[in-house]
Specification:
By secondary structure, the protein is an alpha/beta fold. The chain has 2 domains: 6-89, 3-Layer(aba) Sandwich (Rossmann fold); 97-208, Rossmann fold (3-Layer(aba) Sandwich). The chain contains 8 helices and 6 strands, in the order ααβαβαβααβαβαβ. The protein has a 3-stranded parallel beta sheet, with no helix packed on it. Strands 4-3-5 form a 3-stranded parallel beta sheet, with helices on both faces. The protein is globular.
Length: 226
């Protein structure tokens, strides 16, 4: 993209859209890996005098490798401060009604342009199987998203599949693998497949802008921030 990487462009657009919906609340963007960093986002908010920060990791489904890593980094950052703000940490939103509605709207928009497919494939980012065996709830949270999205769309179960992508290394990752599944479906003669990646929220950012912004549950403070 002319303005930079898609991840950065869409993340900044999400930040700007949220800031427009919350004109009295400072909104900052920070990344676990890259720039702007999570630490720079925290410092930006503290410099504006906030005393309570709501941290929203943009990972819809909890995993120790993503959401918990943000928590760990946040703790490292705050450990260096003499005075720390109040913190509210949103663990995940895998089955949040507005998130599901945003995904469903994105799918319906695709169906309207390309027609209804023979199969809708939900491809999630993968994690090593040993993480799940050690208690990571990520696979279940992916299933929760899939269940709610299928219900919202009213699709029969035989027209939906859930797979995992982006594996690397030699150890087993969550299955079924997206690439192998697509090859198998082609060999079976499935002609029309549409793919959505529910673990990558920027894909639906335009729909999110239209979702209702619920601030009633935020902790009371003199100057909250997100």
């Amino acid at each position: 993209m002319e303005d930079g990487s898609p991840l950065m462009v869409y993340s900044q657009q999400q930040r700007q859209a949220l800031a427009a919906r919350l004109p009295d609340t400072p909104v900052a963007l920070g990344m676990s890996y890259g720039s702007p960093s999570l630490e720079s986002a925290v410092d930006e908010l503290l410099e504006q005098g906030v005393d309570h920060i709501v941290v929203l990791p943009l990972y819809p489904q909890y995993s120790c490798s993503t959401v918990a890593a943000v928590w760990d980094e946040l703790g490292r950052i705050l450990a260096k401060k003499r005075a720390i703000p109040g913190i509210s940490f949103i663990r995940d939103y895998a089955d949040d009604v507005d998130y599901i509605h945003a995904l469903a709207a994105s799918v319906r928009a695709s169906f309207a342009v390309h027609g209804e497919p023979d199969l809708l494939l939900l491809s999630y980012h993968g994690i090593p199987q040993r993480y799940a065996q050690q208690g990571d709830t990520y696979p279940q949270r992916c299933r929760d998203t899939t269940r709610e999205l299928v219900s919202a769309l009213g699709l029969p179960p035989d027209r939906v599949m859930m797979t995992f992508q982006s594996r690397f290394g030699r150890e087993p990752w969550l299955t079924p693998y997206t690439d192998e599944t697509l090859k198998m479906l082609g060999e079976k003669g499935v002609k029309h497949i549409q793919v959505i990646c529910p673990a990558f929220p920027p894909i639906a950012w335009r729909r999110w802008r239209r979702s209702r912004c619920r601030t009633g549950n935020l902790p009371r403070s003199r100057r909250p921030a997100i």
